[in-house]
Amino acid sequence: MKMYYIIAGLAMATAPLAAQTPAYLDETRPIEERVEDALGRMTLEEKIGMIHAQSKFSSPGVARLGIPEIWTTDGPHGIRAEVRWDEWDQAGWTNDSCVAFPALTCLAATWDRNLSELYGRSLGEEARYRNKAVVLGPGVNIYRTPLNGRNFEYMGEDPYLAGQMVVPYVKGMQSVGVASCVKHFALNNHEVNRHNTNVIVDDRTLYEIYLPAFKAAVVDGGAWSIMGSYNLYRDRHCCHNEYTLNRILRDEWGFDGVVISDWGGTHNTDQAITGGLDLEFGTWTDGLSAGGRNAYDNYFLAAPYLEKIRKGEVGTEELDEKVRRVLTLAYRTVMDRTRPFGSKCSEAHYAAARKIGAEGIVLLKNEGGLLPMNVEEGTRILVVGENAVKMMTVGGGSSSLKVQREISPLEGIEERFGNIAEVSYERGYVGDVNGEYNGVTTGQDLRESRPAEQLIADAVAQAKDADYVIYVGGLNKSNHQDCENTDRRGLGLPYGQDAVIEALAAATDRLIVVNISGNAVAMPWIDEVPAVLQAWYIGSEAGHSIADVLSGDVNPSGKLPFTFPARLEDVPAHIFGDYTGVASSDTVDIEYKDGMNVGYRWTDRQKKTRPLFAFGHGLSYTEFEYGEPYLDSSVMTADGTVTVSVEVTNTGGRAGQEVVQMYIGDRKSSLPRPLKELKGFCKVSLAPGESKVVSFVIDREALSFFDPDRHEWVAEPGRFDVYLASASDDVRGKVSFELE
Ligand code: BGC
């Protein structure tokens, strides 16, 4: 009998316990229900706590309820090393090194959506392993001027290309339970005065050029978070900008994620309450009063907000909305117990980085078939240039990394050819010997005592006897180069590199220039140099990817994601004089008078000035021939589609990949339009002699322009031209159809 009662008692105790699992922890319930339940249990103070940072990179959860903290990390090329709780200095961990993936310009140059998915997923796995819920990236600000110090973190000049490439990145990353924080929304197209540039841009340009990649990330990619930019638009900072965040992002695009401020991008409590911001980070207060012991309490969305609520000056409706969104983010990431554990520095991640790197390298020029290299026993290879040895993963601002390993171009070349060839190295020039960012040091000693003339003379002396001279130069991640918070001061190569290249070109006709940069550079010596590769910042596997292409192990297939102008004076942002590189403490209006004339949309119309290399340009070690394009119908009905097809044949002797580009031009429209715009692309792999038919389905959206008066996208009936091209300046075929 006694026994019976004990068992019954136990049974009675467990049954109510199970039934009591609070709804917010019940994984069988939909997220919306769990969010409401959690919200209902939180105190006002806990809610306020949740919408601002508690350290440089984290926001608190609700400890009492078991809702975890949310940790963010840069982004966008690798997982940043741990900093101290409240400082940018290194935390000194020994297990926080990462794989550096190629910079986003390189990813964009692959024109390969699958590689973008691989990139996002691999980086997400690294983030997940390090317990980061949000990666601060990718960036999709449009390449408006080659002076922008942050272009290397973005995906080029074309809204369609950037939009197509950002979506798989976001999806890949989020598939492993890590949120992408797409940045910097919006109109952050240069760095000088980034906190006080007020952009003035017409609606048409805004919607057609500067917004589509963000929209794609949100609508097609389903991004769980987005970062407001530092600059202003319509006189409001973009981290709490009613127009961009509430009206466009939420109302027009239906964004259901979290708006995160850029670090120090919040300026005002009232605007932060109503202007669409959810989560405040990096305010280097004075928020309202001095930083004091716990600066985070003085954030605009901390004590000042609480006080306003307590005094009855504002209600709690906006607060609850913000908390709902942050809770949703938590359920999607840290509270999703089904997400994988992630992995870090795996061979798979290195392999992904190497593949993306090699496929993003662009063969700009290859006269006389100098490339791929033909290396035999005893071939003499001379490598010249600081960028052949300088570690490029450290520097450049917030995307700076602490890597587990980084293969330099020289190491990659030595590894690939060193067993049969003689590989030697000459410095050529001295750039920046510094190798430190926020306490992460490269450990390299790049000091050099020889004067510039001597360095050139020494390189030239060796170049004369070399079978191949590989010059590896370009920009680096120092201030005023490819670096956050500063812009470049000109289009030219720094550190007297033109003189080195010219001297080498005079000494040998077997010169290969490998330009490492995230930006276009001037090449006054281009006619003297037979082969040029655009090699970006490739990260951990840089040297391997470069050697893969030099050797021909990988046939180059990258295409430029932005125009290389011959001169800065050919760039509309500079022609129309609305870029100022002068730092100012006052708000500066920058009017995008260049309008939609960004990149090829401008160069396409120029008769006299041609770009050095056009958007979409990129050569291969094989040749591709295009057949006559054809349509399935010469008329598109109002709600129909037409399909354009073209046969592409590899007529050369090597397997290779071609990026077939499809541009559309509107013959006549009520508003002026660019001659043609990219509306489709497809990377196709072809064995020698092989042909494949590539098809693109064209819908109404591809024919539309944004009508600012009607505030909607419009496709006007009439004739449209479809261009099948190997580059924006290399059209291989054209067909046209009528939209009814
Ligand atoms: C940058 C962001 C970055 C953040 C955190 C800011 O200065 O603009 O892109 O994610 O710092 O490091």
Characterization of the model:
27% of the residues lie in helices and 19% in strands. It has 740 residues and is an alpha/beta fold. It has three domains: 42-332, Glycoside hydrolase, family 3, N-terminal domain (TIM Barrel), CATH 3.20.20.300; 361-554, Glycoside hydrolase family 3 C-terminal domain (Rossmann fold), CATH 3.40.50; 621-739, Immunoglobulin-like. A six-stranded mixed β-sheet has the order 1-2-3-4-6-9. A hairpin with a 4-residue loop joins strand 26 (705-707) and strand 27. Helix 5 (113-129) packs antiparallel against helix 13 and helix 14 crosses helix 17. The chain is globular and about 80 Å long. The termini are far apart. The chain binds beta-D-glucopyranose. The site of beta-D-glucopyranose (BGC) has 7 residues, from loops.
The helix/strand class is: alpha/beta
Name of the CATH homologous superfamily of the largest domain: Glycoside hydrolase, family 3, N-terminal domain
Which fold name corresponds to the CATH topology of the largest domain?
TIM Barrel
Q: State Rg.
A: 27 Å
Beta percentage is 15-25%
Helical fraction: 25-40%
Low-confidence stretches: 1-17
Number of contiguous helices: 19
